[in-house]
Amino acid sequence: MTMQPSTSGNRTIAWPSVITVISAAILIGAEVFGAAFAGGWALAILIGLDDVAAHILQAVLFGIGVLIMIAFIRAAQRVEPFTRRA
Question: What are the beta bridge partners of residue 13?
Fold first, then answer.
């Protein structure tokens, strides 16, 4: 048998990195989702949509905001890894 080092190893959570990414996600999320709701409302008025269509537009923009937040957290995790080898 050959002795190969384990690729997974002992991993521990890097709490400072996790807290940094979560804090940034809260700040950026507030901006993204606030812009989605305000932008949907403003665009609905500009286009002349009724209330139901305005809510649908806001929901679509909210969904885009969720995708933006997922992309942000994935990119931030590459810069600030959530785990490190012990």
Answer: 83
Q: Among all chains, which residue has been given the structure tokens 């008025």?
A: 45
pLDDT in tens, 14-58: 999 999 999 999 999 999 999 999 999 999 999 999 999 999 999
The pLDDT value given to residue 61:
96
**15-47 and 51-79 helices cross at what angle (nearest 10)?**
160
Structural contact between residues 65 and 36, judged by C-beta atoms closer than 8 angstroms: yes
The DSSP secondary structure of the chain, one letter per residue, reads ------SS--EEE-HHHHHHHHHHHHHHHHHHHHHHHHHHHHHHHHHT--HHHHHHHHHHHHHHHHHHHHHHHHHHHHHS-SEEE-
Mean pLDDT on 63-76: 95
